[in-house]
Amino acid sequence: MQEKYVMVELGKLIKDFSLGIAYMPEDGEKREVTIAEVNRPGLPFAGYFESF
Hints:
Elements: E1 5-9, H1 10-16, E2 32-36
Antiparallel strand pairs: 1-2
């Protein structure tokens, strides 16, 4: 089975979740966060807190 990847720029995550920045390198907002498939730890970030 081929893995599926989700790529999101760090700056978008910071904006979407209204996160505070403690430290950010110059190109930090352009860095991409890549994960293989969304798993249970990611469900709360998507707004699902029940039924999982």
